[in-house]
Amino acid sequence: MLAQTESVFALANGHLGWRGVLDEGEPHGLPGSYLNGVYEVRPMPYGEWAYGRPESSQTVINVTNGKLIRLFVDDEPFDVRYGSLRSHERVLDFRTGTLSRQAEWVSPAGSAVRVHSQRLVSFSHRAIAAISYEVEPVDQAVRVTVQSELLANEQLPPADGDPRAAAILDHPLAGEYQVHDQNAVLLVHRTQHSGLRVGAAMDHVIDGPGTLRTDARVTDDAGMVTVATTLQPGQRLRLVKFVAYGWSSARSLEAIRDQVWAALSAARQSGWDNLVTEQRDYLADFWDRSDVEVDGDTEIQQAVRFSLFHVLQAGARGEDRPIPAKGLTGPGYDGHAFWDTEAFVLPVLIVTAPDAAASALRWRQHTLPIAMQRAADLGFAGAAFAWRTIAGEECSGYWPAGTAAFHVNADIASAVIRYVNATGDTDFERGPGMDILVQTARLWRSLGHHDGEGKFHIDGVTGPDEYSAVADDNVYTNLMAQRNLLAAAAASEQHPDRARELGVDPEEAAAWRDAAAAMSLPYDAALGVHCQAAGFTAHQLWDFAATPADHYPLMLHYPYFDLYRKQVVKQADLVLAMQHVGDAFTAEQKARNFDYYDALTVRDSSLSACTQAVMAAEVGELDLAFDYLGEAALIDLDDLEHNTRDGVHIASLAGTYVALVSGFAGVRYDAGGVRFAPRLPDGMARLAFTILLRGRRLRVEVKHRSARYLLVEGEPLQISHHGAAVKLTAGKPSVRPIPAIAPRPRARQPAGREPIRRRVGDGKLAGSTPAAAG
Amino acid sequence: MLAQTESVFALANGHLGWRGVLDEGEPHGLPGSYLNGVYEVRPMPYGEWAYGRPESSQTVINVTNGKLIRLFVDDEPFDVRYGSLRSHERVLDFRTGTLSRQAEWVSPAGSAVRVHSQRLVSFSHRAIAAISYEVEPVDQAVRVTVQSELLANEQLPPADGDPRAAAILDHPLAGEYQVHDQNAVLLVHRTQHSGLRVGAAMDHVIDGPGTLRTDARVTDDAGMVTVATTLQPGQRLRLVKFVAYGWSSARSLEAIRDQVWAALSAARQSGWDNLVTEQRDYLADFWDRSDVEVDGDTEIQQAVRFSLFHVLQAGARGEDRPIPAKGLTGPGYDGHAFWDTEAFVLPVLIVTAPDAAASALRWRQHTLPIAMQRAADLGFAGAAFAWRTIAGEECSGYWPAGTAAFHVNADIASAVIRYVNATGDTDFERGPGMDILVQTARLWRSLGHHDGEGKFHIDGVTGPDEYSAVADDNVYTNLMAQRNLLAAAAASEQHPDRARELGVDPEEAAAWRDAAAAMSLPYDAALGVHCQAAGFTAHQLWDFAATPADHYPLMLHYPYFDLYRKQVVKQADLVLAMQHVGDAFTAEQKARNFDYYDALTVRDSSLSACTQAVMAAEVGELDLAFDYLGEAALIDLDDLEHNTRDGVHIASLAGTYVALVSGFAGVRYDAGGVRFAPRLPDGMARLAFTILLRGRRLRVEVKHRSARYLLVEGEPLQISHHGAAVKLTAGKPSVRPIPAIAPRPRARQPAGREPIRRRVGDGKLAGSTPAAAG
Predict the structure, then answer these.
(1) Which residues make beta-bridge pairs with A707?
(2) Quick check: is B466 catalytic?
(3) With a threshold of 0.90, does the pTM exceed it?
(4) Residue B694 has what DSSP assignment?
(5) CA B274, CA B272: separation in Å to the nearest integer?
(6) Nearest-CA distance A563 → chain B (Å)
(7) pLDDT, tens digit, 9 for 90 and up, residues A382-415
(8) Cβ–Cβ of A535/B535 closer than 8 Å?
(9) Is the dihedral of CA B262, B266, B271, B277 positive or negative?
(10) Interface contact flag, A460 B44, Cβ < 8 Å
């Protein structure tokens, strides 16, 4: 529970992340401070050797903790487990980007104090976090000592047996340099195997009655600034702590040291108030273009803002670094980035914070040399991006659910296409875009083959559903590869100079188009549904009735052997294909496929409910879609998977936005523009949001019977509303009626795996402003 | 090279194995003394956790070395790397079961000696090995010191990177007890993790001129008996060394100690000459019923005797222990037993040493509780025998080529069926036989499922070909499972009391028969061939032309990912199905299937050439069959796979017999009796052998134009010769002409993987008696 709140209340800016640990460090669930890209290498063992498997993995490490502010009240440490806690509240404010805390505490000896702290990880100063810490007596004079700390290699709780939890490394940092100067301390450390240098520094502005004496100390792994005073009732001690970080794999000790001092000086010169103002301004701008208003369900309203806030925190200032599955909120999945980023997170960032999306894609581009070497090692052309990684190297220790999941390459290409379509960023398309499109197209062409009848097959790969593996012609993979091949061919035609540079000749582009045109999509004519992969629908059905409720997630209770050979789906796969490549299916096929696969999908992955919400909405199951929306949206606030302790689920949170916007507003982008098919469930009264499209700003407001479209600014735009063309000009709203649909029977889910029913008017929390209380 | 000879010259009796290391221990390739069933446990690591994977493995260990006899000539150690070696010859005699050595050596100081040693691992005294060691001066008096040693934890060379080589464990034995008494020494040790107690003792009879002074010493890990004397020309020092071994997982230190002393005393009382006589008698009996005579190819003649000798050594006195893939000749494959035993080795032992075959199958029966637990852990009924193991627990660290290869269970059942058919051993059938048949049938029934049309499918399993994995309806697996299900149903009908005991009711037996009757066998009508597994023939063909010769075996140069998804076959799979379940295919199908799969089979496994030989002969490709026979037969004598150092390939050696008897004599057993379809290649003039069949002894002699059948003893017998019934009565030979066949084009193999052409009249070694020189 404590660890969950640390993830939920984590602050980050895409570069630096601080978990929401209490200022005084203890009690804690799982302490953590992270710098995007800072990892240690660990050997990856195997029972039996095989060619081409990665020999080592990368693991995110807990860097120097700058959050610590310990308080002593009349010599007794402020620790909420002792004494008496009269009140305690923490508020994560999505408008200000700060985590505030109010506590009133009586020490075991009877001294009462009020503590108010506020912290931020700055969006405007990417290397900076800051804390304002205030303490005052409640009724009688107290002697207080405040100890502000920088702590490297802090002791972590032992990792539990859950394979999804990170392998936490002990003592990852070797001290290289320490110094203190008045109220400032700087520490430089280095990782042992990955050879990364990490600098952290703090400085303080201290304000209180009378003359305040401060002390500073430093050791290899700790720096400490202490201030002690006696406060009378009405007096207050305030400490503003500025913390700066810097790291590099290449730069010298001196360069890192100076960089950190410089960032710290700049922050101190800005001062706390300016940092707070800049933070609020940054977010005001974000919310102005990104907020989603949901009337009728305050819980969902809060959740979607919580989600957008964490998605922004994961990517805002990454600057050509990955967006890990947990953002910078915890060590889950070893801090690795997966396909989640491109398939779930970037679609949201592209229309809310496009620069952050471009930056995440540029990170992929930077790893192209590694990906091309990996493809060559595996015997293929082009680039094979890592299934899971921090620095680009493949870190998957189980190839059937790692390397074989080649769809990650098409997911990356798809994000490139989506970004270029949404922004019209031609420079990006010509540069990183073409690099990625061409090398992934080459991969697909060499992975697949034409059969005697000319059909193109991609055999032996793993699709999104991790309860199937190493199968032929996975429909999701094939459709995404088809798009990838066509996009590479089109881009090569459009940018012939870049194509020449990349060695693409007309023959190669033609081979891509041929493969795309001949792509196999296995279909079971008897059942009238697509096969997730060839042969899938002929497999035995998983015996859901005989599966005890406590045997989920299935992967913890059944061998992959048995999961792979039966019809049981961990997460949307064919259904995701229908969302991402919707025009490959007729409406009737979508409905039949949805019903068939929903009955097999156990949602043992957090990358499922949001997709099921979108497709449930599309096929007209609005209440079911609403239930799935709830599951995606509340995954971390309600800790639905019992692992929020390891970090929030960025992709599922992004899915909250997608479920609302692509689901209930029915938004679909394609090369031609944007289509809408809005339709609200009973549980929602109104849905309103803004989207960015090639410099335009489009305001959309959906109610039960009509939708209102307003082009706020920009060139006239043609959209589609439930299939009908609507022309929009700036400033002139267009209101369109929503056609009625016939009710259909609710799709069945595996026994015991039905989503929690979301009652109409549900909502545990009041208020509809962007703030979470906890 | 040295290590290869150590494997080739290894002596064993199925219980105890000594590699053919020089008496003086050095130079050596890979020292090794093994006790069947003595192993250490090592943890089995994974990059990522998954349910149901074994957490530890078992590894054969090098037990106390009793072979060592060091010689000092005028204080200089006898070491063939120094001084001058005038002559050196070692002879492994298949008739006497001894390894002899003659050497004449001049020390660096100029003293010349002749050494003659002879060693045996006794077939009659299963715990005993013995050495006769003689030394004499050549031309002038020499002072000789002979040091006979027992050595535990001897230093081993570091293991190389080949995954197929054993993980050699350092210092596996902890000393528990040591004692010496006159010329005898006894050491008891214990393994650290597996908790096995191993005792080894030696005693000596020393004979030489004058009074001989002996010394004995003992430490934790070594015992030593030393004798020193001066020999005049014409004088000789002879030392007979008796070595006894004993081990147990349960028995006390005292019990082991006494057991080893007792075995040693018995051997000493027998004396060297009696041990030699008993050894020769044991082998005379074996050769009398098992020898295969091959005229026209002396190399094959020698090789088949070498093969039979090693097959006997692997199984003779195992007594309810496994027969490992390398026998007791080396640490390869960690000393594990695989399906090789039941599919390749037992078919030979069943007709040459049926008691050894029964013993190996009883070992499987003893592991049934472990196999039933394993099946339950995996979620299946019945028993899932280990893919690789020493003590019964699954030791495979890579499930797609381990646990998923469920065919091992049908291979075991098939060996039971074959043993009972050949011997008529009803007690075995009622007992261990039914236990195995019923539990494996239960496994198959729960592994497979009926589809909507009633067809029975076994999905997601791995067949014999390890370059494919986790596929649906592998034909080999399905046909073998079909046999298994039918045999279990038939046995339950025949032994209703045992069936009741095992809980088999008529419904269950009916379900087995239904599944067997409805078994799917995928067939590609367009190509007119069976699919190795569903979808196999639709996969891309491996690009053999682009595969460099030094990229074989492919598994060391290409990822499993790419091997699995393409048409490339490591080892006979569909072709093995045609051998083992021949009546499931028409002659025309066999020919077409053979041609199709031979063109895809790279023989990166030693478990292939013998099967290809059998089926090449059956489809009428006698010269090709002859070439494959050569490959199977010479695998160790010519070190064709460059890994004979780790032990000989027992299954491939057994395949030499099978290639001759099932191949060129066309022997097929079925429930009704035995069929012959003999036909010799040009390279052989005559093939003669004896087979045992339900107490009868049948002598067969095949020439190019006719075959002669003689029932040596027993009840009249009807056999089939090229489809025609032949009635045999004891003592009356029947000679039958061999029908001519039309020539057919030679099957193609993958480019560069054609077997070496065996020229007519080939043969590097002269002599046709059962002995190998090296």
Answers:
(1) A702, A736
(2) yes
(3) yes
(4) T
(5) 6
(6) 9
(7) 999 999 999 999 999 999 999 999 999 999 999 9
(8) yes
(9) negative
(10) no
